[in-house]
From TrEMBL:
GO molecular-function term, one example from the UniProt record: metal ion binding
Family annotation (NCBIfam families): D-hydantoinase (TIGR02033)
Organism: Halobacillus trueperi
The protein, known as: Dihydropyrimidinase
UniProt keyword terms in alphabetical order: Hydrolase, Metal-binding
Name of the gene encoding the protein in the UniProt record: hydA
Modified-residue entries (N6-carboxylysine), positions: K150
Length: 471
């Protein structure tokens, strides 16, 4: 059915203006003043902003980790995402060394297709680079539309790839038109520091942070950036947390290397002291890389403003405190890494970023949606309010004040890391390809309604590569 969204203020990465939107056949058909169509359902958005649906470039739904599986799957995870104003997620498909890549991709399709309530896509983890993997990559891009490859520089003996694999992946990505994403921490040094801590009987959650200090993130980020320059390739650094890593990215960008970076809400508003909470509650705040000392937060905010960091991902990877996080009691290395973030990503950036004057409204849209669509080959189908784009739309009340809590959250985990945090602004209604997924804050979507998105090659949809890595 056709819809007209009336009286809202449309906000894109470039403009802010009042206009009506006509939606037809899943797309934005017309934008203009005083639109009328007797056959259309009228949605009144008076007093609200109209944003392009948020895109979360970094999720781990139903992901096996350390003998357990992340709590939110493609059902609860995408419902929570929609409540939070996100209409597309890109999840990481993990692979097993020595096994066909397609096996892993098929597994990810199997767990998402009947559940996802919003559109979704996959990145592919590259654990090793050899002739067999090389042969498989063209079909991953061509048939699956997976145009971003993730390389882990940490998690020794689990996900970690060596520098040769990273470099060859960068070379292949350039050749094939893909983007390389790195988890940048020096896994070898971390392993040594972790062993030393355990030998000294240092087993509490805080040692998770102390054994992976900012220097190991800064070093790995700089190494990946230099290898990108050498390969003349393109790099996206996931979950940047600290000044050392921001400096490495800024330095590479100054040299003209095509290096971009993402941060996450937890690093913008939470800090290392949370890991010292009593009664093992510090385990709720175990991410890799870890939360940092507070002074890093302003560096991250500034980088979002200047464009040395471009995007905000959630790194959604939730575990219950009871029954999952507590696997690490008496040994911090056994605490599953990650947290429930997907629902609060957009609201936290709006409240802490826009409302507190750190970024503009248009920058907020760019950071949570537009730049992500451009970077990952989805623009302008996703990431903007323009004629012909998918009608992925968030109707957002910028004035409502509320407190984040596990009680009102739609994520499956038994705690919320932002518990008690006051935020201003909330999505009221959310549309995915023209249909309501959230209507007046209630979920009205359908399981399996989300489409799998094949993405374009890196840079294919934009006029120039410069546009992608410059702000
Ligand atoms: Zn992650």
């Amino acid at each position: 059915m056709k819809k007209i969204i009336k009286n809202g203020t449309i906000v894109t990465a470039a403009d802010t203006y009042k206009a009506d939107i006509l939606i037809e056949n899943e797309k934005i058909a017309l934008i203009g003043q005083d639109l009328t169509d007797p056959s259309a359902e009228v949605v009144d958005a008076e007093g609200n902003y109209i944003f392009p649906g948020g895109i979360d470039p970094h999720t781990h739904l139903e992901m096996p980790f350390g003998g357990t599986v992340s709590k939110d799957d493609f059902e609860t995870g995408t419902i929570a995402a929609a409540h939070g104003g996100t209409t597309t997620v890109i999840d990481f498909c993990l692979t097993d060394k020595g096994k066909p890549l397609q096996n892993s991709i098929d597994q990810w399709h199997a767990k998402s297709k009947d559940k996802s309530v919003i559109d979704y896509s996959f990145h592919l983890m590259i654990g090793e680079m050899n002739d067999s993997v090389l042969e498989q990559l063209p079909s991953v891009i061509e048939d699956e539309g997976i145009t971003s490859f993730k390389v882990f520089m940490a998690y020794k003996n689990v996900f970690q790839a060596d520098d040769g694999t990273l470099f060859r992946t960068l070379e292949q990505a350039k050749k094939l038109g893909a983007l390389v994403m790195v988890h940048a921490e020096n896994g070898d040094v971390i392993e040594h520091l972790v062993n030393k801590a355990l030998e000294a009987g240092q087993t509490d959650p805080i040692y998770h942070a102390l054994t992976r200090p900012p220097e190991v993130e800064g070093e790995a980020t700089g190494r990946a950036a230099e290898l990108t320059g050498l390969a003349d390739s393109q790099l996206y650094v996931v979950h940047v947390t600290c000044e050392e890593a921001v400096e490495a990215i800024a330095k590479a960008r100054k040299k003209g290397y095509n290096v971009t970076g993402e941060t996450c809400p937890q690093y913008l508003v939470l800090d290392q002291s949370y890991l010292e909470k009593p009664n093992f509650e510090g385990a709720k705040y175990v991410w890799s890389p870890p939360l940092r000392e507070k002074h890093h937060q302003e560096v991250l905010w500034k980088a979002l403003k200047t464009g040395d960091l471009q995007t905000l991902g959630s790194d959604q990877c939730s575990f219950d405190f009871k029954g999952q996080k507590d696997l690490g009691k008496g040994d911090f290395t056994k605490i599953p890494n990650g947290g429930p973030i997907i629902e609060d990503r957009v609201s936290i950036l709006f409240s802490e970023g826009v409302k507190k004057g750190r970024i503009s409204l248009n920058e907020f849209v760019d950071i949570t949606s537009t730049k992500i669509a451009k970077t990952f080959g989805l623009f302008p189908q996703k990431g903007t309010i323009s004629v012909g784009a998918d009608a992925d739309i968030v109707i957002f009340d910028p004035s409502v004040e509320r407190t984040i809590s596990v009680e009102t959250s739609h994520m499956a985990a038994d705690y919320n890391p932002f518990e008690g945090m006051k935020v201003t602004g909330q999505p009221v209604s959310v549309l995915s390809r023209g249909d309501f997924v959230i209507k007046n804050k209630e979920f009205v979507g359908k399981l399996g309604k989300g489409n799998y998105l094949k993405r374009s090659r890196y840079g294919e949809l934009t006029s120039s590569k410069e546009e992608l890595y410059q702000k």
